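Why predict the complex rather than its parts? Because the way molecules touch one another can change local conformation, and only a joint prediction can capture that. The input here totals 1484 residues.
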Amino acid sequence: MSQSLLKVTDLKKAYGAIQAVGGVSFEVQPGEIFGVIGPNGSGKTTLFNSMLGQITPDTGRIELNGEDVTQCGPLELNRKGVGRTFQTLQVFGKMTVRDNLIVAAQEHKGTMFGRMFAPGDSGLGGKADALIKRFRIEHVADKKAGELSYGQQKLVDIAMAFMSEPDLVLLDEPCAGVNPSLVGGISTLLKDLNRNPASGKKSSFVVIEHNMDFVMDLCHRIMVMVEGKVMAIGTPAEIRGNKQVLDAYLGA
Amino acid sequence: MKKSTLISIAVAAVFLCATPLFLKNYGIYLLTTWLIFVLATMGLNLTVGYAGQKSLGHAAFFGIGAYTMALLLKAGFSWWLGIPAAATLCFAVGLVLGFPALRVQTIYLAFATLGFNTAVWLLMRNEEWLTGGTFGINDIARPAFANANLVYYYVVLAFTVALGLLLWGLLRSPWGKAFTALRDNPIRAESLGISIRSYTLLSFAIGAAYAGVAGALFASLVQFIEPAPFAVGASIMMYLMVVVGGPGYFLGPVVGAAVGVVVPEWLRDVPGVSDWYLPLFGAAVVFLMVWLPDGLLSLPDRIKAKKQSKEASAARAAAGAKP
Amino acid sequence: MSDTCIEFNDVVAGYKDFMILNNLSFKAQTGSITLLLGPNGAGKSTVLKTLFGLLKPRQGTIKLYGESVVGLTQKDLLAKGIAFVPQGRNLFGQLTVWQNLELGGITIGKELTHERTPEVLEFFPRVKQRMNSMASALSGGEQKQLEIGRALLLRPKVILIDEPSIGLSPMVVGDVFKLLRKLADQGTTVLMVEQNVKSALKISDEAIALESGRLVLQKPASELLADPHIERLFLGGAHAANAAPAATV
Amino acid sequence: QATIKLANIVELSGGGATAGTNFKNGVELAVKEINADGGVLGKKFETITTDTQSNPGVAKGLTQKAVDNDVFAIFGPVFSGSIMVSMAESRKAEIPNFTGGEAASITKAGNPYIFRTSFTQETAMPKVARYINEVTKAKTLAIIYVNNDFGKGGLDSIKKALAGTDTKIVAEISSDSGQVDFSAPVLKAKQSNADALFAYSNEEESARILRELRKQGWTKPIIGETTLTGQKVIDLAGEAANGAIAHVGLTVDAPIPSIRAFRAKFEKAYNYVSDHNGMKGYSGVYALKAAIEKVGKLDRKAVAAAMHGLKVTTDKYPGVLMNVEFDKNGDLDRESFMVEVKNGKQEVIATVPPLNAGNVNVKTPAAKK
Amino acid sequence: MTDFLQLFFSGLATGGIYALAALGFTLLWQAAGTINFAQGEFVMLPAFMMLAFVSMGAPFLVSFLLTCILATAVLGWAFKRGIVDPLFKFGMMPIVVATIGLSIFMRNGMRAGYSAEAHPFPSLFADKLFNIAGVTITLADVGTLVLALLLVFATQAFLAKTITGRAMQAVAQNTESASVLGINVPRMIFYTFAINAVLACAAAVLVTPTYLAKFDMGESLGNKAFFAAIIGGFNNSRGALLGGLIVGVCENLAAAYISPAYKDAVALVIFMVVILFKPQGLLGRKEERKV
Ligand SMILES: Nc1ncnc2c1ncn2[C@@H]1O[C@H](COP(=O)(O)OP(=O)(O)OP(=O)(O)O)[C@@H](O)[C@H]1O
Ligand SMILES: Nc1ncnc2c1ncn2[C@@H]1O[C@H](COP(=O)(O)OP(=O)(O)OP(=O)(O)O)[C@@H](O)[C@H]1O
Ligand SMILES: CC(C)C[C@H](N)C(=O)O
Ligand SMILES: [Mg+2]
Ligand SMILES: [Mg+2]
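Output of the joint prediction:
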């Protein structure tokens, strides 16, 4: 029963002469929080995008619970329980914050035709409000998301990824621009969902982040990428002690 | 529902039902035309205003609906069959037209749809065996009881109100949110499980079905059709109506169609204007856009915002005055 | 060394009809690094935008070296030696990296731009490797580096920089902070917004905390660093009570 | 009723704008003259002009509006497609309706209130056909026509008129209204190896066809209808227009005093030379005047009835421009001309008698300018 | 074969005209991020201006220069002040609709205020025919093509090679960032529309002898130009040329060898094929990376 939740094998993606991702393999176990770190331009975002069908990888294989999902697009992966955030802000700028959250989960409720004349909030209003409260954006809940500050939008973006309670969530720099107190909040949230949320589901995460305190505290294992390749995979302690990693990324 | 909303609805209902009683033939004809364009642009508002798909091919559906009605009547079918037939056919063609939208967006999509419109128009013009070509199809019937212009007006009114309510329900449902999400940020939408493909196609198909019904009603109103009213220029006018009214406002098409259909007629009758009514109409459109870029229906929002800011600055002044 | 460079006096500013900054007043000294702190949405970015003329203050005065800068265009401000690195994405994605740099130097002319480019690229080697790529093809961090480099090209006397650490890897953040410190020591005035508070405080001279567009604290950075309750600063008074996020969703 | 209201429902924008504007100017010029002259039965005409935008649906609505306004007679629309639709309204309201449309079908619907201001294609085309067959003696003919109701109607009529003669149509080439490049149609005409070409399109396109013909070195006869040799076409085509021959129902260049006078008056009023549509509108008003005066009272029904079989002559009504006779369908018949463009001028090379005059011999013109 | 060549060369000449009209679209898209539905009318107006100057007795070249100045003021400055400035920040839709309104205004204003007639227009080139191997070509055809070529490459070079050209593009891509760098945004926008106005004047001079000066000449011109631009690639001036030539030639061939009645569908069919394989147009740049 040690089937990995996510298994990536020899993933490659090149842009012309630039090998953005050059043969990356790793596995994520159910219930694991997996960190991805590495210098700027080392291929982390490209790795996410090719795993999630946003761009087509040159070669490689992606398995979800043993099923080959290499050809799946973002939509199918979401339907299979994979959520994500983007490195650049991706909110629905003309919708209110609350609607942003509701729309993030509504497609997981009922059938398409069932939704045709269903109530507007799909019964998700309470859940949205709870997340809004948790991220302390109550006072802007009815503002258009496009009119929020950078950090507020980032929070909305992250909250959206959790609305449908996915089994696996891929987060690309969730803490960038977020106030340190809320960074702690995000960390707690991830841990809560990971351990045993009320729903009884155990969520797993893959997190790209440059905030080392956050990563080291949160992640069970960490992968270090450099120049599109895996330099090391290990526990936070191992990574911290890795001389190579120190030189390439963490600095003295 | 708020009391003020109820009152507005009542006033609108009285207006719509009573006005034609005071009008002569032409007035009724104009009012009916307006309703038909409200119906057609309601569909376009879904496609363009809510789902953000830049379609410049709406008149093609309008035309397909009109020809469907005309040809079915000529073939001896009932008028009541013509309406659902027009809607269904347009829905199907609309689904097909949605496919380019899965590949291209913005202006590219606008021209793909514009090209589709040209193609449909060419078919209407050249396939004389079916459409009568440029000679058109004459003597298109109305339902027997609605031969009088006034009665036909109420028939059209009934369709417009019923389909309007249906759309209203749809837009308030999760579908409405999904369309808006599609417009705002398709990439994010897809990663949240919103099927871009389904909603894009549906936004075209539903919009097209509305145009189809409108076209069928139009055929029976004018009782003669030929390709010209379904050419690209008409699509552009419909787009104009949606944007002038306020894209993404539910009642935008009601105002927009009034601008596009009634204002030119009104300008004609202003003394001393007659020759210049079209240039004036053009200038009015420019002026409206510059004044209210988000459409006429953004006016209440704007007034509200003004009021709020006034209150806020008053509050600030009061706060500042305190020691 | 202690003349006032930037001075906000009773400034009210905001978006459309919604005021964000409420009677804000503060000063920043020439040749120092002033750090703007506060919760998300406090109005930090709004301060920088208003100073750089992207928002018109409804009330109050903003002075630079004692002269009002309200109503000046960005071009005028750049001519006075102020440069601004905004938050978020600010590149021309369809132009190449080199063309982006060139446009950054549009106010100083082609020659100076060419002359100074090598030294900037020296500092950001990743950018140097990608000179002919479209800017939109760069990674998030690379884009940020390019943006910072583009501003440094001007050798500004005053730098307004909004959360430079977003997207940058820790080593690069350290380098950028060090560079800012060096520039400040050479007489450049820096007004910086940062959420990476601990590292930022280490290089700053003065810290200002905002909350809901109001100044809630202004202290020397060293004093804050030594404060055992520094964490509270991140939260803002209103939220201090429920600092720990709710347990479940 | 102090004035006699006339609705002028014409194409002032869209594809028919040139035709409609000319027609409207003609109507207004006639009305001004008649009013200055004391009006009809002591009453003055008053015109209300509206724009159909070249759109039949709009034309229909505007005709209803005219009916609502209780007008005495309606002029226009000019486009066949529009009048086909709008005349249902004037018929229902029993209002005489004068149109500039030339499609044969208009008067075939048995509408007693519709009247022509020009030949129908069914009157004109036999004359053209006869010329092609008897004078040009072409054994084969290529046709370039404009793909709208006007052009297609003309095509049908000429085909009918040529059927049974020994002139065979070897190419039917469609072109678009507003088309700019005619190299393909002309090439096709050349490839067909026909003895002559019949060109049937609006003015500007006619000019472009003529130019392309010259460019590709076409040397055989080029024959057309009214629109091929108008002054406008000559202005636009320049040298390329020389040699084009056309049958013209109405032309400002006709060597007839009443027409010369009209041409001068029109040019004075509007600063340009009228085309045949201006003449249609102008003569139409005078025909109405003649009918009203014949009836002696302002009774729409009676006037419409009187129009059928009405003969108007230029000695009594110079404004009708040429002697004219309306038949029971509302069609009109009169003399017409064969003209040729020579040195940038239209010259009448033959006068063609009315169709029902029995004698169809082509006479040589009496006077030359 | 001769026939084919005849069609081909005539098509090239027509294509040159399409390209000239399309050039304005690509310029406005690259340098202002807008679409001008009144672009055809922007050609029509200078044509009439020039006619007016010529009829007042001014020599051809003087008339052209006067027209350029006047057009820059009206179609450049006034257009920018009246429509572009207030609407620039509201995105594409309001500007599109405002220009639709403007085209209705200009077209019908010219008709109501001046003339519904088509007016002949003096040609820049002598009325001369060449016959090469059975193919007849007019001097005007060749001249139009050559000048279209020159204008396209000049525009392209200006946008790509000069700092001002790039600053103009920068404004279209990200206005706020452009102003943060000290780019004079209003001035760049003015340049864009001024250049567009001058290009429209040039197009007017070359196109009008064939299209004739008429209030609605812009309608058909605009339509074909759109397709030409989009087939070639909207964000590339050379695309306008390629697209224009392709549409011109294919239309002519289709009219002769397939069906003249469906001639107008040719541009559409080419467009559909192009977006199937290269959604950004033949020479167009790919849209930027979004995530
Ligand atoms: N364009 C806008 N329209 C309306 N309101 C806005 C706009 N931009 C920002 N705001 C509001 O102004 C307030 C302050 O925004 P600002 O960007 O200055 O915050 P900030 O302190 O920089 O926050 P962050 O740390 O998240 O970047 C926020 O509450 C936000 O909702
Ligand atoms: N569309 C593209 N075209 C060309 N090069 C690309 C493209 N996308 C990414 N790259 C290059 O691939 C490399 C990896 O980029 P990626 O965005 O994956 O980096 P990253 O690890 O996420 O960096 P960061 O920490 O800065 O976000 C970079 O050098 C980048 O310039
Ligand atoms: C003016 C003409 C070209 C129009 C034509 N008289 C018609 O019947 O439509
Ligand atoms: Mg990244
Ligand atoms: Mg900020």
